[in-house]
Amino acid sequence: MAFGWIDEQAELRRRAGLVRTLGPRPADSPLLDLASNDYLGLARHPEVTEGSARAARAWGGGATGSRLVTGTTELHAELERELADFCGFEAALVFSSGYAANLAAVTALAPHGSLIVSDAGNHASLIDGCRLARGTTQVVAHAEPDAVRKALQTHDGPAVVVSDTVFSVDGDAAPLAGLAEACREHGAGLVVDDAHGLGVLGDGGRGAPQASGLAGAGDVVVTVTLSKSLGSQGGAVLGPARVIDHLVNAARTFIFDTGLAPAATGAALAALRLLRREPERAARARAVARELHARLTAAGLEAVRPDAAVVSVRAPSPEGAVRWAAECRAAGLAVGCFRPPSVPDGISRLRLTARADLTEGQIERAVRVIRETRP
Ligand SMILES: Cc1ncc(COP(=O)(O)O)c(C=O)c1O
C-alpha cells in the first residue's frame, strides 16, 4: 500500500510517547507565556503591529515575487541597512525565515571540496544546511574549540566552522572567541547563528558576536531570525559586503524563494527601532532568565544556568516531560517541551523562555506552578 510505512512509523512514535500534536493559540490566551520566543515582549507592541499593518497597506499581503524580481521593497533595504548597522556588520540580507538564512549561509559558503565543521548541538536548520552543502561535514563535540582545531587540521582547502551562538535546547552559549581563534589559525570562516542572541546579548541586544568582539570581522558571518526578540518573522545574514553579494548571486533560498512579506518586514523594522530606543529590554530579559534559574534550582529542580534567555529544566522522561508541560498548561502556564528527536542527547526538558516584560509576580507564579506539577 502506498505510504504504508507511515503507519508503522506512527505506531513506533506512539509507543515511544513521541507523538506531536498541534494546539492552536487563541488571540487572547489567558495563559502565562513562557513558551514563545518573544523575548522582549515586542510581538504585540503597538509600534510593531502598526509597522506591520502600515507595510501591508502600502505594499500588499505578500512580497509578490523573489527578492531578485519584484520582492524587494524599500522596507527590505531599510531593514538590511539598519540591521547591519545595529549589529556592527558591513551588510545584511533579509530572507523569508531564519531557517532559509541558515540554509543559504552554509550552502553558499561551503562549496565542493570544502570542509564544514559543525557543533554537535547545532540547530536543525544549520544541520540541514550542512546536508545540502557540497562540502564535507565533520560534526565535532559540543562547544569545544580544540575539537574544531583538530577537525580543521585534517583538511587542506577552504573550511567553514558553523555554530549556534546560544544553543536552543539548553540555552548555553558557544565559546565564540575560542572558535574564532581556532578558525584564524587555519584561515577558516566562522558562521554563527545568533537566533537566540540578537536582542538579548551584547550592548543593548546587539547580539553575541558583538558581545564577543567579533562584530564586523571580515571572517565572521552571522545569521539571525526576526521571529524571536524582534517579534516578527523572517531571517537575515550579516557579514562582509562581498559575502552578502555572493549570497545574492549564489544562495538558492534567496534566489528561488519569495521575498519576506512586507508586513513581517515592517514589523521587524519597527521592533529594531524600538530596541535601539529601549536597550534596557535586553538586560531585563537576561535578568529574568537568571531569576527563573535561581528560583527553580532553589526549589530543587535541575536547570541549566542560562547564558541568554532560554532556561532548560530536566524532565525524567519524554512522557514525563509531556505530562509536566500539560499540567503546567492546566494550571495556566505555557512552557515548551523538548524531547527526542529534537534533543541531541536524548534528555527531555521543559524549555522556558524569559521575557523582558515578565513581572516579579509572574516569575514567582511560573516557578510555583512548575514546582507543584513536577512529576
Ligand atoms: C537556533 C535557531 N536557528 C534558526 C531558527 C529558525 O528560525 P526561523 O524560525 O526564523 O525559521 C531557530 C528557530 O526557529 C532557532 O532556534
From TrEMBL:
**Any one of the GO BP annotations:** biotin biosynthetic process
What cofactor does this one take? pyridoxal 5'-phosphate
Q: Keyword Transferase on this protein?
A: yes
Q: Which Pfam families match?
A: Aminotran_1_2 (PF00155)
Q: In which pathway does it act?
A: Cofactor biosynthesis; biotin biosynthesis
EC supergroup of this enzyme: transferase
This enzyme catalyses: 6-carboxyhexanoyl-[ACP] + L-alanine + H(+) = (8S)-8-amino-7-oxononanoate + holo-[ACP] + CO2
Domain of life per record: Bacteria
Output the Gene Ontology terms for molecular function. 8-amino-7-oxononanoate synthase activity; pyridoxal phosphate binding
Report domain Aminotransferase class I/classII large positions.
31-370
EC nos: 2.3.1.47
Q: Keyword set for this entry? A: Biotin biosynthesis, Pyridoxal phosphate, Transferase
Q: Which family is this sequence assigned to?
A: Belongs to the class-II pyridoxal-phosphate-dependent aminotransferase family. BioF subfamily.
Q: How does it assemble?
A: Homodimer.
Protein name, per record: 8-amino-7-oxononanoate synthase
**What is the scientific name of the source organism?**
Streptomyces cyaneochromogenes
